[in-house]
Amino acid sequence: DAGITQSPRHKVTETGTPVTLRCHQTENHRYMYWYRQDPGHGLRLIHYSYGVKDTDKGEVSDGYSVSRSKTEDFLLTLESATSSQTSVYFCAIRLLYNSPLHFGNGTRLTVT
Amino acid sequence: GESVGLHLPTLSVQEGDNSIINCAYSNSASDYFIWYKQESGKGPQFIIDIRSNMDKRQGQRVTVLLNKTVKHLSLQIAATQPGDSAVYFCAGSGANSKLTFGKGITLSVRP
Fold this sequence. Notes:
The complex is a heterodimer of chains A (112) and B (111).
Chain A: E1 4-7, E2 10-13, E3 19-25, E4 31-38, E5 42-51, E6 54-57, E7 64-70, E8 73-78, E9 87-94, E10 102-103, E11 107-111
Parallel strand pairs in A: 2-11
Antiparallel strand pairs in A: 1-3, 3-8, 4-5, 4-9, 5-6, 7-8, 9-10, 9-11
Chain B: E1 4-6, E2 10-14, E3 19-25, E4 32-38, E5 45-51, E6 56-58, E7 62-67, E8 72-77, E9 86-93, E10 100-101, E11 105-110
């Protein structure tokens, strides 16, 4: 698991509620990413971070925000969850700019 | 934009045979490619990568081939085992280093 812990592993929430997913790494890697995985779409980038307090949007960032106040933690927040955000969310870390991503085991989120 | 895709959604092979999984990409500026394996309930696991200055790279039982002329890469798994059953993804990136992932192909190994 490359020293990546995602929590919670499973979450069921109601439409309109806020949700925060946490990614914690022990590798001290600079780069961190949030992806969602849906059938027929593959992995899509939501947000990413180059370092503490340095984040940027990915291709599917609408409805999501992130924060990174410490190197080891990268939080993904759904301000007001919608059913379209039902998905499996993966956090990934990267040591160098052009090197492999290493993924956590994911959070399965269901919005009812 | 770049798209990365796998040619077939499923592949079934006999245990002990070699497996070949193919992937095409659209962006000729792509210079870095990765293959991932994903088992049920787990995150994608890095298998092997290759940069555009190489045509071939070998790992343990796996080989990645890159053909930049036709924008195609393949993953070859030697002596396929039941533990190789999983979904396999290719991913590629260009100058911005943002990876684009293919949708995945399911490899099924017959005993």
